[in-house]
């Protein structure tokens, strides 16, 4: 079982009554007009239907907001909620806004250009309940700009601890799911730092949780050529800063973990 080592705190729902079987899906949206309809389609195609989709339109310069509004009107699907903000929040604060508005017991993240297999939610939730886990993630496949799988599938281990996560690149944002009866909304707030998703995983695991991996390819990770994640040098800088600033590691300890991380990052992309 992937249980934490200490007692769980109460659910901090900021006055929102949580639906026990609902999965809240949080999607930050910024300059996503090219992909957002396909992403919404993949959520509506899920075989598990008790979900809400929280789209946080982050004051982008494109037509993402209009595309979402038209989609909601066209489909009439009241499970989709559009949240807006008058200023640009950035990915971390946009996700945090979505988390605070979530009504489901379970939380899943999805990036605005990624895609899920139709049985992703069903399989992952069943896996989470079977393992009684607070934090789970799945395997995934790299995809091209058109969303077509490249055949490069990332396999995931059965579990990841904090020490293992510091040297591992396996957990990908669009694959994770959390149980918000074991993790509070406060614990799930992403920090204001680059690579905020990785920083959140590390912080949760540092508290004594163990993440459980479902080794099935259930997500397509679209790698656009100009995306931040595709910029390898920037990715290296961000991870180094996480070791030094977020985790407070010494230079020597940071370098030790960084070597393992870099090797596995290269292996993942080959």
Describe the overall structure:
About 35% of the residues lie in helices and about 25% in strands. The chain has 8 helices and 10 strands. Strands 1, 2, 3, 4, 5, 6, 7, 8, 9 and 10 form a 10-stranded mixed beta sheet that branches. The longest helix is centred in the C-terminal third of the chain and has 19 residues. The two termini are about 30 Å apart.
Summed up, what is this model?
The chain is α/β, with parallel strands linked by helices and 270 residues long.
Topology, please?
Layout: E1 19-29, H1 36-44, E2 51-57, H2 64-75, E3 80-84, H3 91-101, E4 104-109, E5 115-116, H4 120-131, E6 135-143, E7 149-154, E8 159-160, H5 162-165, E9 177-179, H6 196-206, E10 211-222, H7 232-246, H8 251-269
Parallel strand pairs: 1-2, 1-4, 2-3, 6-10
Antiparallel strand pairs: 4-9, 5-10, 6-7, 6-9, 8-10
Helix pairs in contact: 7-8
Q: What shape does the CA trace take?
A: globular
Mean pLDDT: 88
How far apart the termini lie comes to: 32 Å
Category from helices, strands and their pairing = alpha/beta
The number of distinct structural domains comes to 1
Order of helices and strands: EHEHEHEEHEEEHEHEHH
Per DSSP, the total helix count is: 8
Q: By CATH's scheme, which homologous superfamily applies?
A: Spore Coat Polysaccharide Biosynthesis Protein SpsA, Chain A
Number-wise, the strands total 10
CATH class bucket: Alpha Beta
Name given to the CATH architecture: Alpha-Beta Complex
